[in-house]
Amino acid sequence: MVLGWRMCFNINYLKEIIKMKKEIHYLILAVVILLSTFACETRLPFDDNGGNGSENSSNGGAVTINAKIENGDPLVYVVQVEYSYKDNIAYGRTENGRLIIDLPAIVLERYLTQIVGSPTSLWNDIVSDKYAKRTRYRDISGINKDGKTISFRLRPLTSELVSGEYWYFDRDCSMKGTAKFDVDETYDCSFKKGWNLVYLTGMRNQWGEYSVVSVSTQKPSNLTFGWFWYLY
Questions:
Q1: pLDDT band at residue 59 using 50, 70 and 90 as cut-offs
Q2: What is the dihedral of CA 80, 84, 87, 89, to 10 degrees?
Q3: What one-character-per-residue DSSP string does 20-79 give?
Q4: Is the pTM of this model over 0.85?
Q5: pLDDT in tens, 72-117
Q6: Is it the case that residue 122 has pLDDT exceeding 60?
Q7: pLDDT confidence tier of residue 14, bands split at 50, 70 and 90
Q8: Could you please report the per-residue DSSP string of 159-194?
Q9: Which of 88, 115, 87, 114 is nearest to 103 (CA)?
Q10: Are 70 and 94 in contact, with CB atoms under 8 Å apart?
């Protein structure tokens, strides 16, 4: 009887072990599928000029920047996407003359600002969702081998009056119309939740001061964009 009981116990024990292994296997499989799903949601860059990969092909979600630096390798090893002087949204690097940055799918609440902050806001008439929040990075920069600060900018190969920036929104919304500042700014933007590539067109006054006059999520069809670095 004792022997039979022990055999029965061992068989049941083995069954439990096999069951546990199956459950662990299914759990690992579920995690792999979940990670694969997130990876598929990341928008990869498209070729803008013979393989530059300067911009992303569709807006929203996370964004991977993997782009040729048009004016040479600045030899910067750590790149920071700055929200303020002492706070960074993301990090990246330069490698073989390319700028590589992963902008996260989710941006922390402390980096977000509600577009319409008051009933008298100049944005009131042009924003589809007055509770929408966004963020813009202050700069993309790094330190080169000589200890000098390098700034990166997305702009056309032939013009410095137009530039590209990534803006993050916490929901889908649009901005259509003109905001009446010292210099009027006209918006034609449809934003998705996540990072969106926007194109800013500016002008210079008689004193050479630059002001933005239009913002759009539609890429200018007659311009080819690339990433450039500048010394502060």
A1: low
A2: -50
A3: HHHHHHHHHHHHHHHHHHHHHHSBPEE-SSSS---EESS-SB-EEEEEEBTT-----S-E
A4: no
A5: 999 998 999 998 767 899 999 999 999 999 999 999 999 999 988 7
A6: yes
A7: very low
A8: -SSEEEEEEEESS-EEEEEEE-SSS-EEEEEEE-SE
A9: 88
A10: no
Q: How many CB atoms lie within 10 A of CB 217?
A: 18
Task: Evaluate whether 226 touches 68 at the Cβ level (below 8 Å).
Answer: yes
Report the amino acid identity of residue 123. W
Compute CA distances 139 → 53, 118, 148, 165, 175, whole Å.
Answer: 20, 27, 15, 10, 23
214, burial (CB in 10 Å: exposed 0-12, middle 13-18, buried 19+): middle
* Max Cα distance, the chain (Å): 104
